[in-house]
């Protein structure tokens, strides 16, 4: 059945197919920089009719725009919590006030976690 589905998708050049690549920034570097099926799809050499949705942390945005600027039709940035949102969320999620305070302090010590 898998081969049949794959052949059908390929036969129609990916028309009506949504490919979701979640975590582009976590993809091994060799798949992002060397010839691969993944890059063929992103460059529309393979499955040119497919719609592609890529999620990534902001650190990979520049790479995506530089290498795939012709293929990108939309760029949507989803912003995380504000500082006040984080404090409110933590207070709602953690009942013990001391644990809550300690956790918020921990987040401040590690800004890459805090956002």
Describe the structure.
By secondary structure, the protein is mainly alpha-helical. Helix content is 50%, strand content 7%. The chain has helices at residues 2-11, 29-33, 37-42, 61-68, 83-93, 97-109, 111-114; strands at 18-21, 51-54. The chain has a two-stranded parallel ribbon with strand order 1-2. It is elongated. The model has no long low-confidence stretch (mean pLDDT 83).
Topology:
Blueprint: H1 2-11, E1 18-21, H2 29-33, H3 37-42, E2 51-54, H4 61-68, H5 83-93, H6 97-109, H7 111-114
Parallel strand pairs: 1-2
Radius of gyration: 20 Å
| Net shape | elongated
Distance between the termini: 43 Å
Order of helices and strands: HEHHEHHHH
Quaternary class: single chain
Please report which band the strand proportion falls in: under 5%, 5-15%, 15-25%, 25-35%, 35-45% or over 45%.
Answer: 5-15%
Average pLDDT score:
83
The number of E-state strands comes to 2
What is the makeup of the main sheet? 2 strands, parallel
- Give the proportion of residues in helices: 40-55%
Spatial order of strands in the largest sheet: 1-2
Given the structure, what is the number of helices? 7
Low-confidence stretches: none
Helix-strand category: mainly alpha
